[in-house]
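Write out structure tokens for N-acetyltransferase domain-containing protein.
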Amino acid sequence: MSTSTSGSHSHASVPTNDSRSVSIRHHDNPSDFLFAVSPSLTLQNETSAVVILAHAQKRIAGPKPRDFWLTVWSTSSTTSRSALELILMCGSWLLGDYPIFIWAPPKAERRSDATSSLVEFLRKRVPDKRVFSVFGPTDITQVFSSEWSKVTGVPILREPYYDAYLARCTKNTLRQGTSTMPLPQGHKTRVATTGDLNDVAELCKQFADDESAPYNFSAEDSRLEAQELIRAQQVWVYEASSGVIACICAAARHSQRASVISKVYTSKAFRRKGFAERLVRHVVQHLFSNRRESVVLYVGKNNPARRVYDRVGFSGIGDQANSSDDHEDWLEVGFNVAITGRW
């Protein structure tokens, strides 16, 4: 594998066994990365890769020197056209490192030469211990993780950290449901304010305790996260009577046409009242009104909240998927090393 460097990215050629050539590019500039990949992404691909693209969008305003993206391209000898095959992100945030995020176009051919070369390329840029987990579409995550373990000798943990569906909602699939009915008297759905900090931080902590294993969030971690979400106006609340915050929903990741909602959590005292459904629908409608064409969430395969998201209009949730095109399995695989981050 030969390597050259130009501007904000380096480039490596990968030997192959067929008529196509494969190359890997290293991007340490988020604008450079987005410029390189955007022409190759349909809306469906953008919603699938949004967790990676959104981080690059955020880093344009606040770059971090350790963050980078790797892209894998194949070029046909007959057409000389390059096709995007893989994206890998090594990023960080307020509370430490992210897992390694990886993405490949759904249903694309998986090339073992590209994956093994990507592993080799990544090892030259980070220590083995930095890769404490990998998150991405299940098939490419399994292939990459197996190759990483084989090359590094670091064992894969038997149980995955997260086994999930990627669910999508568009204006066409959005269901009005209870939104046509007025909220109970004194109830509100709204953006959180600084006056909600204690309540939002507590619900963030409860969410982490219930949903974020193996990552440990202290009360101070959750407060810092809540402060940042409120400052950026990226968390919404369902306010029940007497001003009690019953439910939260965050939307902190945005690409050009897609957004991710996360951290949907209802206090145990207010469950089975329809509050989460109302809040999620409110946030989705807000995102659509701000020029987003698709809203994405990741939901655990055993998470009973799947029913809530189905009622809002999210497709691709396992048995409730409308077609094979809706269905996308995502997986986070852990390695037997110390965890240096969280998310």
